[in-house]
Amino acid sequence: MLELKPAMLLLLHGCLAQHMFLSSQRASQVLVRSRRANLEYFEELKPGNVERECVEEICDYEEAGEVFEQPDTTESFWCRYLECGRDWTTLRTRGRINFIRKCITPGKYK
Question: Which stretch is the leader sequence (predicted)?
């Protein structure tokens, strides 16, 4: 059987310990998470909200239907929403949010 001297064990421990432990910066990255669209707990259980569903986020016809719940109202809103712009794949910047808000509710925001 191979007998290791105490000095050799200490040296071996030092070499292996570098690979076993992370730096504090790398260890802290485990705790970081990206923000989700839902800012409150159980937000998906709240009734639909045009501001939240279709202005701050990119919505589809189904989400608009959840907000208005009536097919005629949903269709009217959806036509107006599509007329406000064609490029819905871009991120929501403050300027784009303000533009969409004013476009879908023209009399409310001036």
Answer: 1-17
